[in-house]
Amino acid sequence: MVDSRDNPVRNLLISRDGNGFKAIEAPAQLERRLEMRSGEIKSSLFAATDTAQIPDSVASQVVDMFSTNIDFASDLRRGDHFEVVYETFWQNGEFVRAGRVLAGEFTNAGSTYQSVWYEEPGASQGSSYYGIDGKSLKKAF
User: Fold this and answer.
1) Tens digits of per-residue pLDDT, 10-22?
2) How far is residue 69's CA from residue 19's CA, in Å, rounded to a whole number?
3) DSSP string covering 13-41, please?
4) Which CATH number is correct for 30-130, 3.30.110.10, 1.50.40.10, 3.40.50.1000, 3.10.450.350?
5) Which of 45, 86, 115, 137 minimizes the number of CB atoms within 10 Å of its CB?
């Protein structure tokens, strides 16, 4: 899963130091935004997410979110559709990277599946995607 804390963005600050230069690495101050996009399957999920201008890392998370209910290799149908809410991170008005998918809905062959991200406060384990009914969407062994 993508987590902004796992891979922090850093800036390289260069300043003049006498006759030379000095470089300092510092954490970047990123602006977090939420994006909501939707798409319709015409040929494949990744073609639909490309058309909807959704980053591939987000499309991969959508597959993970709904893989308990949908086999993306064989179950997708023309006309299936989805909506997704995800984080993006920006610096000085420029896109840096996409973050975690926070919620999504996928309609496949007439059945609608919903998923939300829940992060257990202060826990490194226990954060996962859940259905609206509160059941975990993690696959069991």
Assistant:
1) 767 788 888 888 8
2) 63
3) EEEEETTEEEEEEEE--PEEEEEEEEEE-
4) 3.10.450.350
5) 137
